[in-house]
Write a structure and sequence with these properties.
With about 450 residues, this protein is an alpha/beta fold. It folds into 3 domains: about 120 residues, 3-Layer(aba) Sandwich (Rossmann fold), CATH 3.40.50.2300; about 140 residues, Rossmann fold (3-Layer(aba) Sandwich); about 80 residues, Helicase, Ruva Protein, domain 3 (Orthogonal Bundle), CATH 1.10.8. Helices cover about 45% and strands about 15% of the residues. β11, α9 and β12 form a beta-alpha-beta unit.
């Protein structure tokens, strides 16, 4: 829980906000004016300040000014129903993270609060994964923040309810086994057995039988089977399918293989008949180096899973975050999972340092560049609402000037100017953390 000091003289507003924000991890202390808030600030440690401007006997800007004189760098957000350029500029000068005019969306406020806390941690050299990456897209135990993995999830949802055999192609460590199990869990056979045939560790004759089973059979690393065992496997599949009347009574086959499988088939090094018998559908997994948006959500996922819900997720030093996102990950998700497990063995306090990272990662990435505050401000959308307010004000002023001029020269006749073409606009994708922070949040203006 983040401790919030919420200052506003509207009892209805602050009580409503306190109840909503509690569901999003904020424990709010309410004060009706700046003087009472200052007393609370002196006796209690808070993580964030959200304050109105106009209050008696002490307003929000005077409160923030006094807190700054106490050498506190607590992140602050100013909200006001009387927005103007003067208070906006003063808020910025006093180090407010953002300035939000009323009425506002609750989702926008929560997103701004999360970014304010995350930015504050980053200015102290730390990355708060709880604020940065969540909530992220998942399917079962799969993390799917990248577009490539969202496409995989779409394919799973389409193919899982069918009886089709599915090839899962990709490098080792990309999560092919997890995809196979997810297909099983979203199929009509989810209450049946999930059997694994590991071809990479299957020596000698292939002594298996699939007859009279409605299980999902995961044939792992099928391209590792020698030619003689490939023919044995094909014969067993044929026997099994011939022994049942209905397709739904056969086992459902899900198969993992390397990306080179089609090349092996074309070159004659993999049995074409076996390939054709099983080639109903294909899902391809990209290597982790080609889906970097998944890296930090995966780190959070592994930390939360291994630490449990009761323990807080440690923050990352910015150098750790940089290393994680710039390493090549030849072992893919499996290597990342092992790296997180190794870090947890030496975890002390509430942070993960670069020195705790495996040597292979440290040596590959090398020196971490200095991160500028201007880069952090851009990354965490510092002052996003303030900038929108100032742009709106500027538009309002510029649109009023020609109108006032026309009123002063009402009698004058002027030649009509041709209409200027409207500038083309492009769709701009949302900045980092905006989409995530708003996802699944209440959409209500207050």
């Amino acid at each position: 829980m983040h401790k919030l000091l919420l200052v506003d003289d509207s009892t209805t507003l602050v009580n409503y906000l306190r109840n909503v924000l509690k569901r999003w991890g904020y424990e709010a202390m309410i004060c009706a004016d700046g003087r009472h808030a200052l007393e609370a600030f002196k006796s209690t440690t808070f993580d964030l300040l959200v304050t109105d401007v106009r209050m008696q006997p002490m307003g929000g800007l005077e409160l923030l000014r006094t807190i700054r004189l106490m050498n506190s760098d607590i992140p602050a957000i100013v909200i006001t129903a009387f927005a103007d350029v003067g208070t906006a500029a003063e808020s910025l000068r006093l180090g407010a993270f953002d300035y939000i005019p009323k009425p506002f969306d609750i989702a926008d406020l929560i997103a701004t609060m999360n970014r304010a806390l995350a930015y504050h941690a980053a200015t102290h050299g730390l990355l708060d994964l709880e604020l940065i990456v969540g909530p992220y897209h998942t399917l079962g135990a799969m993390v799917a923040e990248s577009q490539a993995m969202r496409d995989v999830c779409t394919s799973i949802r389409k193919v899982a309810p069918t009886e089709s055999a599915v090839f899962i192609l990709g490098e080792r460590g990309t999560g092919r086994g997890l995809v196979a199990r997810t297909i099983h869990e979203h199929s009509t056979r989810k209450d049946q057995e999930f059997k694994v045939l590991d071809c990479a560790h299957h020596a000698g004759a292939l002594d298996v039988s699939f007859a009279h089973e409605r299980a999902t059979v995961f044939i792992k690393e099928i391209n590792a089977l020698p030619p003689a065992q490939q023919k044995e496997l094909l014969a067993e599949i044929d026997r099994c399918r011939a022994s049942v009347e209905h397709e739904a009574d056969e086992p459902r086959f899900v198969i993992s293989a390397s990306n080179a499988l089609r090349t092996l088939v074309e070159s004659g090094r993999f049995d074409k008949d076996l390939f054709r018998e099983l080639a109903d559908a294909f899902i391809e997994l990209k290597p982790l180096r080609e889906r970097r948006p998944d890296i930090l959500p995966l780190v959070h996922h592994f930390l939360r899973r291994d630490l449990g819900e009761a323990r807080p997720v440690p923050k990352l030093e910015l150098g750790v975050s940089y290393s994680l996102q710039h390493y090549a990950w030849p072992g893919n998700v499996h290597e990342l999972e092992l790296a997180v497990a190794a870090v947890l063995e030496t975890l002390e306090g509430g942070r993960i340092t670069k020195a705790q990272m495996p040597a292979s990662i440290r040596e590959h990435v090398g020196e971490v560049p200095l991160i500028k505050d201007s880069d952090l401000r851009a990354q965490f959308l510092h002052g996003a609402a303030l900038k929108r307010f100032l742009r709106d004000k500027e538009k309002s002023l510029t649109s009023r000037v020609p109108q006032e001029g026309a009123e002063r020269h009402a009698g004058a006749v002027r030649p009509k100017e041709p209409a200027r073409p409207k500038p083309k606009t492009e769709d701009v994708p949302p900045g980092p953390h905006t989409d995530r922070a708003r996802r699944n949040q209440p959409d209500r203006k207050i």
